[in-house]
Amino acid sequence: MKITCLQMDMKLGLPAQNFSHAEHLIDRAMQENPDVLVLPETWNTGFFPKEHLAQYSCQDGDMVKRCIGSLAKKYHVHIVAGSVSNVRGGNIYNTAMVFDRNGQCIAEYDKTHLFTPLGEHNFYTGGDHLCRFLLDGVPCGVIICYDVRFPELVRTLCLSGIDILFVVSQWPKERIPHLQTLTAARAIENQIFVAYCNSCGVAEQTAFGGHSAILNPLGTVLVQAGPFEEIISATCNLQLLVEIRSRIPVFRDRNPKLYAINEL
């Protein structure tokens, strides 16, 4: 399966401009002949305009479903459409959407771990479910940015059986080493491919770090972007999963009766 990440520099609070730019990047990315395209976090609004956020946001994913869904159908490609600021039922969510080759939205996920140091929880509502879906028969999951710091979330997804984890993010430049370490750990400990698509550019005082990458289940980086806007691709050899899981059977050797978490 060939995955292509679109490391996008979006403009804060300019959704029309960001939709146009995302469409341009998707057009360009099709030169890579991918099976799956991946966008970063909150690419419609940037992360995140505290004034007029609801006004800038999608309404129940309407624009994403029309625009990105039509492009998925046009190019007959799967699109993990990053995430968008999204109004639904009177609340604003940080919502990821996934489209199949026919342009159908086959999965939606609301970010469950909101980044309190920047006050995300004061503007967005957290999600209440995990997200597993099939792309060409391959079981996949998606998480958003801060979620990657919570191994319980990813392990729960992996216990349901996934082979590829998509991480869409707006991770700051100063903490890129953390992102690289965390994604490698999630790949190794769960024996999965990890494709993370980060943003780049500057929004107010925050510089986002790029360095999107695709990793194999050994934590080896198959391809990595630099700090600026870039399109990267790698082919994931799914046979490697069978070999690694048979050689180091961590899921068979788990001892779940010891893993109860006692909340403080």
Query: Helical amount among residues, as a percent range?
Result: 25-40%
Overall pLDDT: 97
What is the helix/strand order?
Answer: EHEHEHEEEEEHEHEEEEEEH
Strand fraction? 25-35%
CATH topology: Nitrilase/N-carbamoyl-D-aminoacid amidohydrolase
Q: What is the strand tally? A: 15
Class of secondary structure makeup: alpha/beta
- CATH-defined superfamily: Carbon-nitrogen hydrolase
Query: What is the CATH class designation?
Result: Alpha Beta
The biggest beta sheet is recorded as:
7 strands, mixed
Low-confidence region ranges: none
Supply the number of structural domains.
1
Query: With helices defined by DSSP (H or I, 4 residues minimum), what is the helix count?
Result: 6
Structure overview:
The chain has one domain (2-252): Nitrilase/N-carbamoyl-D-aminoacid amidohydrolase (4-Layer Sandwich). 25% of the residues lie in helices and 31% in strands. It contains six helices and 15 strands. Strands 1, 2, 3, 4, 5, 6 and 15 form a seven-stranded mixed β-sheet that branches. A six-stranded mixed β-sheet has the order 7-8-9-10-13-14, covered by helices on one side.
